[in-house]
Known about the structure:
Layout: E1 2-8, E2 11-23, H1 27-38, E3 44-47, H2 55-58, E4 65-67, H3 79-87, H4 94-102, H5 104-113, E5 139-141, H6 146-161, E6 165-166, E7 169-179, E8 182-192, E9 203-213, H7 235-240, E10 245-246, E11 251-257, E12 262-263, H8 267-270, E13 274-278, H9 296-308, H10 324-335, E14 339-343, H11 364-372, H12 380-387, H13 389-396, E15 407-416, E16 419-420, E17 433-435, H14 451-470, H15 478-500, E18 508-509, H16 510-524, E19 528-530, H17 531-549, E20 553-554, H18 561-586, E21 596-604, E22 614-615, E23 625-632, E24 635-642, H19 653-662
Parallel strand pairs: 2-3, 2-9, 3-6, 9-17, 18-20, 19-21
Antiparallel strand pairs: 1-2, 4-5, 7-8, 8-9, 10-16, 10-23, 11-12, 11-15, 13-14, 14-15, 21-22, 23-24
Helix pairs in contact: 1-6, 1-14, 3-4, 12-13, 16-17, 16-18, 17-18
Amino acid sequence: xxxxxxxxxxxxxxxxxxxxxxxxxxxxxxxxxxxxxxxxxxxxxxxxxxxxxxxxxxxxxxxxxxxxxxxxxxxxxxxxxxxxxxxxxxxxxxxxxxxxxxxxxxxxxxxxxxxxxxxxxxxxxxxxxxxxxxxxxxxxxxxxxxxxxxxxxxxxxxxxxxxxxxxxxxxxxxxxxxxxxxxxxxxxxxxxxxxxxxxxxxxxxxxxxxxxxxxxxxxxxxxxxxxxxxxxxxxxxxxxxxxxxxxxxxxxxxxxxxxxxxxxxxxxxxxxxxxxxxxxxxxxxxxxxxxxxxxxxxxxxxxxxxxxxxxxxxxxxxxxxxxxxxxxxxxxxxxxxxxxxxxxxxxxxxxxxxxxxxxxxxxxxxxxxxxxxxxxxxxxxxxxxxxxxxxxxxxxxxxxxxxxxxxxxxxxxxxxxxxxxxxxxxxxxxxxxxxxxxxxxxxxxxxxxxxxxxxxxxxxxxxxxxxxxxxxxxxxxxxxxxxxxxxxxxxxxxxxxxxxxxxxxxxxxxxxxxxxxxxxxxxxxxxxxxxxxxxxxxxxxxxxxxxxxxxxxxxxxxxxxxxxxxxxxxxxxxxxxxxxxxxxxxxxxxxxxxxxxxxxxxxxxxxxxxxxxxxxxxxxxxxxxxxxxxxxxxxxxxxxxxxxxxxxxxxxxxxxxxxxxxxxxxx
Length: 667
């Protein structure tokens, strides 16, 4: 990495030059940096908005899962079978599924070797368990903080290798050019947050042969979100530069606590806490689930199953299934503007036609689990204390005592299955850009729990492999780079100057601007998607983007320029999602995966919910396509692309060996 200066418009800006620039510092980005070093690419620079501030270091559940090939026991498994599991989730390309399966064991053992404490038995076997959408026992876990431990160990390795990290820098733009009729990235523009109050003097320019983007999912577009506070992702920066996205309609939502953002899956539900709701001021406490179930046994069993079946799933609504709970929680929090809590101090209570809570009334699966766990006794907190005391301690460490107070929850955005499009080497159609981790849209409609962690590690490895074998050279001198980027840089500087003129002006402040888009997305485009509100939401989102793009907003201080660009890219992502959802519905798409499409002429959800809750069933033929999105010339372009099947060629060893040695595998 070289540090220089760049003179433009009277400003003297820092210019960093490196072979490969890595944006983001989560587990995927750090793993890519490790492998690049391993493959001999040493001219690296990691630039990050906040080291340790992302999802990898700050998220988890009662038993956070990592998904990989089965590695112990007599149950048969294979790369092909795992690939089929991933592919059969729908809207996923078969070659990507095959790669994620083939490299899952390799990348898992890389984590083991650097110290992530995945458990094994006395024979050295890494035993597994079943997770969501998993027909085998491929899942493993290092506890509630699996991804945090991945982050910590990978960061230690990156530091040991000597890769420089530039912290507190918010990337606001990718710098591009056209090469042989193909667009490519050649650098980036960032704001040094430590001196953002100095306005344009806080700009930093990066020249890079390759850009690896590991900025995570756009969790900041939702009001109800389990993403870490302040984690916004950076997909909008790539969309503005012309990169194609895919499957932006596909997300995963689930119940999570809101004071401390954490998934309330697994044992939190399996001990069967009481659900209550109150007014915003805490008055009028109700056990709101009771009127919507036939028996207490049905209600308690649904709560228990929510632990196994944590993500909202449209297939688990009927017959008082576990995802029926998510609808009822949404109805309380969004439609009725009430607050919902899980209360571990009391068992569910009788009322509204339901009898007392009794273990004997539970479904067979729930009763058998509690019996085998020896917790057929007491209150939920007493059961949790025996089943998983770490789950209680976790909240205590964040100022919440489950022995003394209920836990506020909502249905929250948890993971974006879609994202930026990448090929089998995780390279974008904006060449030399490699989106990895959650920002890359490899997943389709359904994915096994924990497969995202595997995908991020595999993607980082593949990007490093391709860069080190194909893009190892340098294309432009400093002088050529400055000449190419001058128009882009000039345009961005003018936009910043215009935005800074809004300091102290009249208009909408940036905090309420973000709140506006977050509320819109939670109300219209989260796990409940209402067709009657979508067109209005799309128009409002377009108007909102026009406002911020034209600087018709207010900055309170020059340092707000960072928040201005954060909101600008978030607003573009919002538009991309709504445009994709609108196209999906126009193609006849319905409820699938982790969202319910509510429409007046649909199928009733439950006879206890009335006509306001009717949904459009899934059009399953659409699982055979991915939905691509591109922002080009101010227009939202959408394309339906048939999924690529899983490759079934006869990979004869001698042919593979020759192609590997001749590097034709990269063509």
